[in-house]
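Exercise 7. Predict the structure of Myb/SANT-like domain-containing protein from Pisolithus microcarpus 441.
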Amino acid sequence: MATEDPAVDAEPKHADWSIKEVGVLVQYLHDHHAEWGDTGNFCQSTYANAAGHIRLLHVPGKIKDHKNVSIKWGVIKQTYSAIITYHSKLGEHWDNEHGTNISGALAGENWSKYVAVKGNTLMRSFHNKGWEYINFLEDIF
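Solution. The predicted structure, encoded as tokens:
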């Protein structure tokens, strides 16, 4: 009688996203932005079609389904919102080449305090670089 090894998962529970997969997802949703719904999201069929499109890039790990795509889209929207809030509502510097362009000890200290606040952690990687998806998101919204 064969026993299954509990240390081996047939299907990972967490979907890890490669940079290429995220890029393809954003491009797909940008190309299909006419399917954007009144609720501020795409319909489930758009997410399912995007998952099928991304499947062509599959590497070992969880195969992305419509739910994984929907969750990832939520994170992408949160990142966009964090950038827009930082720049527009707070009146702080943002450009897509240098991000927030933090330089100097005092600016670095203030930046560290800002990103330490819950909800601002999505901004952490943009202290001196832009976000390659911002133009796509601006078009979608």
